[in-house]
Design brief:
The chain is of the alpha/beta class. The chain folds into 3 domains: 3-105 and 337-361, NIF3 (NGG1p interacting factor 3)-like (Udp-n-acetylmuramoylalanyl-d-glutamate--2,6- Diaminopimelate Ligase, Chain: A, domain 1), CATH 3.40.1390; 111-130 and 242-334, NIF3 (NGG1p interacting factor 3)-like (Udp-n-acetylmuramoylalanyl-d-glutamate--2,6- Diaminopimelate Ligase, Chain: A, domain 1); 135-233, Alpha-Beta Plaits (2-Layer Sandwich). It contains 12 helices and 17 strands. The chain has helices spanning 5-15, 49-58, 82-92, 102-106, 111-118, 147-156, 211-221, 255-266, 295-300, 313-322, 331-335, 338-352; strands at residues 3-4, 28-31, 37-38, 40-44, 62-65, 96-99, 122-129, 135-143, 170-178, 195-207, 229-233, 242-254, 272-274, 280-290, 305-309, 325-328, 358-361. Strands 7-12-14-15-16-13 form a 6-stranded mixed sheet, with helices on both faces. The protein has a 5-stranded mixed sheet with strand order 2-6-5-4-17, sandwiched between helices. Helix 3 (82-92) links the parallel strand 5 (62-65) and strand 6. The radius of gyration is 25 Å and the shape is globular.
Length: 372
């Protein structure tokens, strides 16, 4: 059975909430029908005509891109121009396009977190933290034997996410008491008699904006006529989210060795780097894509090196003058590391939700640069 595109959108937004996107960004549905169904999903950094043709050839009705199809305001679409021709092709091929950009960059398990992990960095912190997301705690009392159904309803509606972990709940056993009144239709017990029932106290956390949806799902799955539940406001800070990551190498190395390590991990023959080759490196900051503007934060955080892409001439001079080395491994290479991770996440989430969809990673190289 095919999956609706809208269901895939929800899975992505649980991993990379739209609230993490920068104000200037354009994320979410770009083109197409959210209610359309597909058996295959194609992941790519960029959407161009070749990628669109690949999606059609593979039978993928949904493209998930990292970079937006529409980034700047569209003032006209002329089908005799490359941009208009692409849009026309996608529409005629019934292909839906969805983008997860800076929200995927800053997610707890997003682009920069994956890049830091691939480089072997430890004790990670966020370089430019996002605004904190507010949570509530939901506690509900469920008769023994029904806790699995209620738990599945809670987590299926968006509860129980903590950083890179989903389905996070806690339960304890106890005894619930109640006396059904004359007008009641009790699931357990008799009218007028005090009843004692073994119940499960089930608790989890919910993003504030999903509270109504989660409570509705919980009530639908709960067997009781009148459900006892509590909602508590929390002061917990959000899990590590935001742009860039800072971490320590397992052991100090020379800058020369770190450059070679970055090339090997990212599969690159060459990178652009600045700094003394024999400088000892302990702390490294990373930002997938274009993260050069984060260098002052990296410097303030004690980083010896910033690994990112798109560092221009004058920025490189400023960084070296202030005493921080850099490795420009390219926009494309520092972001493509997310595609296998996102693919595994979507496949596992679809299976867990009983959704049937094959997730493909585009084989088209959308990097505009070739080095000779």
């Amino acid at each position: 059975m095919a999956v609706k595109c809208q269901a895939v959108f929800r899975l992505i937004e649980e991993f990379a909430p739209l609230s993490l996107a920068e104000k200037w960004d354009n994320v979410g549905l770009q083109l197409g029908d959210p209610l359309a169904e597909t058996n295959k999903i194609l992941l790519t950094l960029d959407v161009n005509k070749t990628v669109a043709e690949e999606a059609l050839d593979q039978g993928a009705g949904l493209i998930i891109s990292h970079h937006p199809l529409f980034f700047k305001p569209v003032r006209r679409l002329s089908f005799d121009l490359p941009s208009g021709e692409l849009v026309a092709f996608l529409i005629r091929s019934y292909i839906t396009v969805y983008t997860a950009h800076t929200n995927l960059d800053g997610a707890a398990g997003g682009v920069s977190a994956v890049l830091a992990g691939r480089l072997g960095l430890e004790n990670l912190t966020v370089l430019s933290p996002a605004a904190s997301r507010r949570y509530v705690k939901l506690v509900v009392f469920v008769p023994s034997g029904h806790e699995d159904a209620v738990r599945d309803a809670l987590t299926g509606a968006g509860a129980g996410w903590i950083g890179n972990y989903r389905d996070c709940t806690f339960q304890t056993r106890g005894t619930g008491t109640f006396r059904p009144l004359t007008c009641a239709s009790p699931f357990i017990g008799r009218q007028g008699e005090l009843e004692q029932v073994e119940e499960i106290r089930l608790e989890t956390i919910i993003p504030v904006e999903k509270t109504g949806m989660v409570v509705e799902a919980m009530l639908e799955a709960h067997p009781y006529e009148e459900v006892a539940y509590d909602i508590y406001s929390l002061a917990n800070p959000e899990a590590a989210v935001g742009l860039g990551r800072l971490g320590r190498l397992p052991e100090p190395v020379s800058f020369r060795k770190l450059v070679e390590h970055v090339k090997a991990v990212l599969g690159l023959e060459e990178v652009k780097a600045g700094g003394l080759p024999e400088r000892v490196v302990k702390k490294v900051a990373v930002c997938g894509g274009a993260g050069a503007e984060l260098w002052p934060l990296a410097l303030q955080s004690g980083a010896d090196v910033l690994v990112t892409g798109d560092i221009n001439y004058h920025t490189g001079q400023e960084m070296l003058a202030e005493g921080i080395n850099f490795i420009d491994a390219g926009h494309h290479a520092t972001e493509r590391v997310i595609l296998p991770v996102l693919s595994r996440y979507l496949e596992e989430s679809c299976r867990a939700g009983g959704l049937e969809a094959q997730v493909l990673i585009s084989q088209v190289n959308t990097n505009p640069f070739t080095y000779f």
